[in-house]
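Input record (one chain):
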Amino acid sequence: MPFATGSRSYTHRFAKYVVDLLRGMTLQDVSNHLGVSWDTVKEIHSFYLKRHYSPPSLDGVENIGIDESAVRKGHVYKTIVVDLDTGRVIYVGAGKGTDALAGFWRKVRRKDLKIKHVATDLSAAFIASVMENCPDAIHVFDHFHVVKLMNEKLDDIRRKVYSMEKDTNKRKVLKGTRYLLLGNGADIFDEQHRTRLENALAMNEPLSKAYYLKEQLRQIWSQPMKAMAEEVLDDWVRQTEQSKIAQLQKMAVTMRTYKKGILAWYDCHLSTGKVEGINNKIKVMKRNAYGFRDERYFTLRLYALHDCRITRNVG
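The corresponding structure, as predicted from the sequence alone:
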């Protein structure tokens, strides 16, 4: 019959109506509204997504971002590759190790793509995978993840300072300062909060050193030229090494090791910001759908994430 496909129990027009409804309703809402099973609604949506978004085209892809996303409790991850120029998810791999990207690199070789820039965090698996499969690309280490790593070192120092402090009054000053220490100092406008932060820093030298080095770290990415940024980075590493604080000295080793990738930001001004944005969309999508048990359907949903008309409220 021209108005239906194969042995399906619904017409093309009905399927189109379901897809239109899914632009603003969840699977369960559409199921209840039309009086058909949830599985039928999902089947219609899966068929539509597969037809329009899978497999995603890799034509013209030059700049990519790679990151992992937790898809279920129990450390179940997916590795996603995003075209940084269009914001499309172009590959979804199982897990978060080097094996998760093997299928993507096979597609790159088959298409003979010339990847120019790759943005990732400091994951050893991602670094090894890019070096092995895309050695000529400029590999940029996302500066937000570098700052996050420094914040983790600062927070570790804060916890140890608090646990070792015996003076009750000083402990009261330190208690609850975490968000003040880890936030951007320039954004603290409340005088009471600023005074509390200054008091906490004044009473402990290691905490004070770590905080001001954390604030200085952002200057690496605010220089007008790459050469000047390198000078700032080298000076920061020297200060950190001389701090005699174990957590900061470890951070200095990390900065020195990944210096080339950190400064590569000046060559292309790329980051994993778009990938992080997609990860936030994934969290919202999972929350609306109360999780996904069908991995194939979940992958199709990821391929369509860039199209807000399709993914806005579907769950």
